[in-house]
Write a structure and sequence with these properties.
The complex is a heterodimer of chains A (115) and B (113).
Chain A lengths: L3 E4 L2 E4 L5 E7 L4 E9 L5 E8 L5 E2 L8 E7 L2 E6 L8 E9 L6 E2 L3 E5 L1
Parallel strand pairs in A: 2-11
Antiparallel strand pairs in A: 1-3, 3-8, 4-5, 4-9, 5-6, 7-8, 9-10, 9-11
Chain B lengths: L3 E3 L4 E4 L4 E7 L6 E7 L6 E7 L2 E5 L2 E6 L4 E6 L8 E8 L9 E2 L3 E6 L1
Parallel strand pairs in B: 2-11
Antiparallel strand pairs in B: 1-3, 3-8, 4-5, 4-9, 6-7, 7-8, 9-10, 9-11
């Protein structure tokens, strides 16, 4: 099966600093990558969609200047949370879709805690 | 009315039981249907994916799609304690939206030994 990795799995940072999360498709080329946020006991909330080499498309209400997404290659996308605040603490999950495929494969998630 | 409705449970069954999980949806443009399993503090794991109506079987799992009723199901046979997790249905329309997924809220399943 298709494998997606995320790094780091858990990060703690101080308020005001920036944090970068990496998402990699290990055994397929990811035409499209998605970034989600999940709060405890809730379903996934899509933050943005990115196609390789293009600017990300953000969902309504998601601050594009705060959550910077880069999809520079067919196997790597990054999410940078800039000037993080405690309310940004959450579980961030990426997913990837290969060319000519409709299903998404998810990474294991990154738990961000901002103190 | 939400686009995708899924009973959040919780659902508790004894080991070996047949589990039935369901979702209904309102958007007739949905053509691609998926079921994910999510353990606590982990990313969702793709269990089954189907296009349009019909049945698909993989081991102990069977996915059914009835587009005329806008109703999808996941059956788990011979359920095991390791199946205890949250099950999410998800669906998307055509590729024009990059196959963006719309999720149900998830059903929390506990299989008791």
């Amino acid at each position: 099966g298709a494998v997606v990795s995320q790094h780091p799995s858990w990060v703690i940072c101080k308020s005001g600093t920036s944090v970068k999360i990496e998402c990699r498709s290990l055994d397929f080329q990811a035409t499209t990558m998605f970034w989600y946020r999940q709060f405890p006991k809730q379903s996934l909330m899509l933050m943005a969609t990115s196609n390789e080499g293009s600017k990300a498309t953000y969902e309504q209400g998601v601050e594009k200047d705060k959550f910077l997404i880069n999809h520079a290659s067919l196997t790597l996308s990054t999410l940078t949370v800039t000037s993080a605040h405690p309310e940004d603490s959450s579980f961030y999950i990426c997913s990837a879709r290969g060319r000519a495929h409709y299903e998404q494969y998810f990474g294991p998630g990154t738990r961000l805690t901002v103190t | 009315q939400k686009e995708v409705e899924q009973d959040p449970g919780p659902l508790s069954v004894p080991e070996g039981a047949i589990v039935s999980l369901n979702c209904t949806y309102s958007n007739s443009a949905f053509q691609y249907f998926m079921w994910y399993r999510q353990y606590s503090r982990k990313g969702p794991e793709l269990l089954m994916y189907t296009y349009s109506s019909g049945n698909k079987e993989d081991g102990r799992f069977t996915a059914q799609v009835d587009k005329s009723s806008k109703y999808i199901s996941l059956f788990i046979r011979d359920s095991q304690p390791s199946d205890s997790a949250t099950y999410l249905c998800a669906m998307s329309d055509s590729g024009g939206s990059n196959y963006k997924l719309t999720f149900g809220k998830g059903t929390l399943l506990t299989v008791n030994p």
